[in-house]
Amino acid sequence: MSAIIKIRPLGFPWETNDPFLFCAYHEDQYPKGNGKLGPEASLNGRNIGQDFTLKDGWRMYHGSKIPGFPAHPHRGFETVTIAQHGLVDHSDSLGAAGRFGNGDVQWMTAGKGVQHSEMFPLLKTEEENPLLLFQIWLNLPREKKMVEPYFKMLWNEDIPIIKLTDENQKVIEITLVAGTLNNHIAPEPAPNSWAANPENEILISTIKIDANAKYTFPKASLGINRSIYFFKGTEIMGEESTIPVNHEIVLNANQEFTIKNGDTTAHLLLLQGKPINEPVVKHGPFVMNSQIEIREAIQEYQQTEFGGWPWPGYDHVHDKRKGRFALYPDGTEIIK
Hints:
CATH superfamily of the largest domain: Jelly Rolls
CATH topology of the largest domain: Jelly Rolls
Structural class: mainly beta
Low-confidence stretches: none
Distance between the termini: 48 Å
Shape: globular
Mean pLDDT: 97
């Protein structure tokens, strides 16, 4: 049996399979900062508030002065935000906050409802502020849809980096965000996550492969969904296929799959997990099991705003002098 089920081009956002909902990939070559955490560059010609066009190598997204995503609600799923490069300022309706990046991961369970903002502060004023970020939406099963919201930080210092070599001593570097691989265990996810049960075989990792290196993905159980997202490089070879960059490879996870990289370093994202196999009804920032539940979510948000917004502005950012930190709803603050 072939390991490859299908190969498809990457769009925006990236398509995923159950238990994942989608993956948003953001890469922006932000310019020098203006000292107020925004870009030292003209915003003329941009559709401010809806700037998703890659102009001069970067976008403002929904931000007006600082790039990012001002306050917006979620219910019924989780976000796993991998900030490979650059910084993210988090604020939410629980009073929690944080600044993370350059390898850190934030794991947030929206549960019964939360508002949060994700802004991209441009702290550097003497050099550019590149950003590379994945935000993965991971579904919650029906029994967990309405749990209390929760967030935690997976600091880069605590995330395993597995370095392997192939038969020609070429290096494969795997950053293990969730799951278990080669006897390495990722930090614990949020407690109500589908990923919290090892039987669900959730695996989230980024993979960097030397030019001309080979790597074999180990087998998972029958019925596990697995996708590889090839987002940087030139081409990789797998089985009888030559796969160009910016493509997803959907795999039979219970089959070994070997890739041989081309002539430049390749960068991949791996998403794997047991499907939840429940109805999925999406409406913007809400993901439930029925249209009735979606209507209830909209109505409750209109009435309560999921606790309101305790920050001075919907595009709230933290003091430019502040480093990486996490402030939790109970007042506990961790400074890195």
